[in-house]
Structure formats: structure tokens, C-alpha cells
Amino acid sequence: MTLAVRALGGTRPILAVALALTLVAGGFAAWAGQGWYGASHDESAAYAVQRDRALAAAEQAVQNLNTLDHTEVDQGLDLWESSTTGDLHDQLVKGRVEFAQQVKAAKTVTTARVLSGAVTELDDRAGRAKVLVALRITVKAADDKSSEKDSRMLGELSRTGTHWKLSALGQAPVGGTATG
Q1: Residue 76: closest CA among 105, 53, 99, 106
Q2: What is the distance between the alpha carbons of residues 121 and 17, in angstroms, rounded to a whole number?
Q3: What is the pLDDT of residues 80-136, one digit of tens each?
Q4: pTM: predicted TM-score of the whole model, two decimal places
């Protein structure tokens, strides 16, 4: 009988270790859950998501507005219009016919590739953002000669519903300015 009691008494340290491990695992799960909940309800995380969405939309829109094939002008200009809003959109619609005629006559194919981009300002509540996008533009002329040019564009975005669209676009100044 003493042998049986010793055998049973030997299981208590194993039980204590198992209980300690269970408590440690439970504590870790509670700590990790609290961290996850805090991160998922953090305003800065939501702000970062909007910044990333604005940047992705800006890069795509700037690429769209710098890409046009004379054989598919209407589809290209439709894409331009769907990428824009506000005054920029109105200008594109107003000058569409004349511009399409010029591109068809020149028989050029222009393609753009985004090199990098950054959001320089974001007002998530007002639905406005400013961006800087660097891209490489390739123009292929009717004689099959092509030229490349790197360009930096400054853009403004407006949120329309759940989508960001370009509302202004222009060349970024190149080089430094003199300070006095």
C-alpha cells in the first residue's frame, strides 16, 4: 500500500506544473487579446489605411493620365475621366474632342510607369489629400522612335464616396530655389 501512495503522491508535482503552464498560457492570451483589440480600434491605424488608399488611387490615376494610345483614344480618355473629379474632370471633358483629334493626328503612344509616390498631406475628415508622384513617361512616335522622360507630379485628391480621385494635377518644380 505504501508503494501505491508514493505513486499517487508523485503525480502532484506534474499537476502543479500543468496548472502553472495553463495560468501562464491564459495570461499570455489575455495580454495578446488586449493588444489586438487596442490595435484594431486605434485611430492611427484607420488613418494609415486611408493614407495608403489615397496613395494607391493617386499613383494609379497619375499613371492613367500619362498613358494614352492613339489607336484607343476613346478608351484612354474614358479612363482619364473616371480617374478624376472636380475642375480637372470638367477640363478633361470640355477639351476631349480637340485633344482626341490631336493625339490621333500625331499617332503617338504614351505610357507611364510610377517610380514612387508619397502622400504629403491628408485630411481624412474633409476627404482631401495631396500627393507627389514620380514616374517615367515613354512616348513612342509614329516613326517608332521613342523617348523617355522622368517626371514628378503634384496632385490633389478628393474622396468621392469611398473612392479617391484626382481633382488637380501639375508638374512639381525641379531643382532648388534660392533663399536669401
Answers
A1: 99
A2: 55
A3: 999 999 999 999 999 999 999 999 999 999 999 999 999 999 998 999 999 999 999
A4: 0.74
